Amino acid sequence: MLLTRKYKIQVSDEQKDILWNISEQCRLVYNNALSERKSAWENENRSVKYIEQQNDLPGLKKQYSNINIVYSKTLQSVLKKLDANYKSFFGLWKKGNKDARPPKFKGKKYFITIPYNQSGFKITDNIITFSHKYNNIKLSFEIPDDLQETKIKQWEIYNTIPYKASGDFYLSCIIEIPVIKKYVDNDKYQAIDLGISKTVTAINSNVKFFESVNPRPDKYWNPKIDAIKSRRDHCKKGSTRWKRLHASYRKMQRKSNNQVKDYQHKLSKTMIENTKANTIIVGDLNVKNMGRSKIKALNRSTQNNGYLSRFIEFLTYKAEFAGKRIIKIDESYTSKTCCSCGKQHTMPLNQREMICDCGNMIDRDRNSAINIMLRYLSQNAIWTGYQDFLDNLQTELQLVVTCKNPHA
Question: What is the pTM assigned to this prediction?
Answer without folding.
Answer: 0.80
